[in-house]
Amino acid sequence: MEILYNSTRSNRNPVRASEAILKGLSEDGGLFVPDKIPALDKSFEELMQMSYQQVAYEVMKLFLTDFTEQELKACIAKAYDEKFDTKEIAPVKTVEGVHYLELFHGATIAFKDMALSLLPHLLTTAARKNHVTNEIVILTATSGDTGKAALAGFSDVEGTRIVVFYPKNGVSPVQERQMVTQKGGNTYVVGIHGNFDDAQSGVKKIFGDKELAGYMEERGFQFSSANSINIGRLVPQIVYYVYAYVQLLQKKSLKESEKMNVVVPTGNFGNILAAFYAKHMGVPIDRLICASNENKVLYDFFRSGTYDKNREFVLTSSPSMDILISSNLERLIYLIAGKNPDRNRELMEALSNRGVYTITDEMKEKLMDFYGNYASEEETAEAIRGLYERTGYVLDPHTAVALSVYEKYRNETQDHTQALLVSTASPFKFTRSVMKAVDSRYASAEDFALTEKLSEIAGVEIPGAISEIRNAPVLHRHECEKEEMKQTVMNFLGI
C-alpha cells in the first residue's frame, strides 16, 4: 500500500516519502502528513522476537513506501550501531512501578539521536532516488538537543552542509559546548540574539523565501530541514513506542492488548505526536499525557481549546521545552479539522498574524485522548530530588517535568493504568540543575565541575559525549541578530 504525503495547508500536490524528506517543508509553508496512518502488519508476538533495528524496519517500511527493502535496511544499520551504548538502543527501566523509556543512549545523550542518527542516511538516499545533483543545505533551529544531534549526524556527510541556529542564552552550558565544539568542514553553528521561537520562525521564513530558493538553485544548492517538521524525523520516533510496548510484553509488565498510558515531556510536539501515530497504528496506548514546563502554552490549549503564544517566554531548567510555538501541533490540528487544509491554514495564519487561534468544540472533542498539565521549576526540582532520595535513580529536568505531571494526572484521575514515561535526556546534559535539585549547596558550581559527583551519586559512568567535549576546542563563535539569519546562511555558503 503506497503512502503519499500531503501538505497540511493544501491537498493538491501529494508527494512520495523520499520527496517529502528532501523538501522538509512544503512550498506553501505546511508540514507533510501521510495520507493515511498504516496499521502494523506484524503481530506483537512476532515483534517480540526482533531487535530494535528489525522493529524499526517493520514500522518504517509502512510509511516510507518508495524506499526499497535494501535501501531502508542499509539506512537503519548505519544509524543504530555502536554509536549507542546499549544493544537495546532504547531500553525500558522500571522504577517505583513507572516504566522509563530511556532515549538517551546515543552519541549526544538525548532523544534526538533516535531520529537524527537515521535522517542523514534517509536524506542522502532520497537525493539519489530523486536524481538530485544540488548540494543539500540542512537548515535547523534548536532549543538545545536537535542542534547537536543534527550536527553529529550530518558532519562531513558528502553532498550536504548544515547550519544550526540556537538561542545564545537559552541552552544549557553542556548543550552549547556540544554544538560549538562540533567538528566537520560542512558544519556552521550560530547563536542568535533571541529565543528558540525567534530561531524557528527565522528558519521557516527562509524556507518560505521563493526568491532565495531560485537564487540557491542557480548556484547548485537546495534547502532541507533536520527539525521535527521533517517527516523523516517523525517516522523514526514512532518506532520506539512500538518497541517499548514489546519490551513491556517481554518483561510481563503488560499482557497482550493491555493498554498503557504514555507521558511525554513536550516542547515542539513531535515526540508526543509520534506516540499518537503509534496508537493509530495499533499500539494499545490509552491516554497521551502532555507534560509542559512553565512555558505552558500546550497545557492551556488542551484545557481551553485556545492556542495563545502571546505571553512571557520563560527560561527554565528544561530548555528543550522552552517553546511557545509547537510546530508539530499543526499536524494534529490538520487531522482533527478533518484533514481540511483550508481550515488548518486559517488557524495557522491566525497564529502567525495575531499569535492566537481557537479550535471548534467539535475539534476539541477529538482531543479526548490527550491530557495536558505542567510542572513549575520547584516541582521539577522536587521530582528529581524525591525520586533520587527514594530510589537512587537520577532524572534530567525534562524527564522530571514528565514525572511531576504524571503524578498530578494520577492524583487527579485515580487512573492507575501502567505508564510509559519518556526519558528524553541524560542527567549529565544538565549537571548543575540536577545536582542543585539533589542538594542546594551545588547551586553555584560550574556544570562540568559537577560531572564526577553526579557520576558518583547516580552510580553511572560519565558518558563519552561529556568526556569528549570537556576540553575540546571551541570551533564555532558565530553570533547574529534574529533579522540577520538569511544573510548569515548566504555568507556561510559564499553566495
Outline the biggest β-sheet: 6 strands, mixed
CATH topology of the domain at 92-110 and 232-461: Rossmann fold
CATH architecture of the domain at 92-110 and 232-461: 3-Layer(aba) Sandwich
The CATH class name of the domain at 92-110 and 232-461 reads Alpha Beta
Over the alpha carbons, how many angstroms does the gyration radius reach?
21 Å
Strand order of the largest sheet: 4-5-15-10-11-14
Structure summary, number of beta strands:
16
Topology:
Layout: E1 5-7, E2 10-15, H1 17-23, E3 32-34, H2 44-47, H3 52-63, H4 69-79, E4 92-95, E5 98-102, H5 113-116, H6 119-129, E6 135-141, H7 145-154, E7 160-167, H8 173-180, E8 187-193, H9 196-207, H10 210-218, E9 221-225, H11 231-250, E10 260-265, H12 270-281, E11 285-292, H13 297-304, E12 306-308, H14 329-336, H15 341-354, E13 356-358, H16 361-365, E14 370-374, H17 377-391, H18 397-413, E15 419-423, H19 431-438, H20 451-458, H21 464-470, E16 478-481, H22 485-493
Parallel strand pairs: 5-15, 6-7, 6-9, 7-8, 8-16, 10-11, 10-15, 11-14
Antiparallel strand pairs: 1-2, 1-3, 4-5, 12-13
Description:
This protein has 495 residues and is an alpha/beta fold. The chain has a domain at 92-110 and 232-461: 3-Layer(aba) Sandwich (Rossmann fold). Helix content is 44%, strand content 17%. The protein has 22 helices and 16 strands. The chain has helices spanning 17-23, 44-47, 52-63, 69-79, 113-116, 119-129, 145-154, 173-180, 196-207, 210-218, 231-250, 270-281, 297-304, 329-336, 341-354, 361-365, 377-391, 397-413, 431-438, 451-458, 464-470, 485-493; strands at residues 5-7, 10-15, 32-34, 92-95, 98-102, 135-141, 160-167, 187-193, 221-225, 260-265, 285-292, 306-308, 356-358, 370-374, 419-423, 478-481. The strands form four sheets. A six-stranded mixed β-sheet has the order 4-5-15-10-11-14, sandwiched between helices. β1 (5-7) and β2 form a beta hairpin. α3 (52-63) packs across α4. The protein is globular. The protein starts with a strand and ends with a helix. The model has no long low-confidence stretch (mean pLDDT 96).
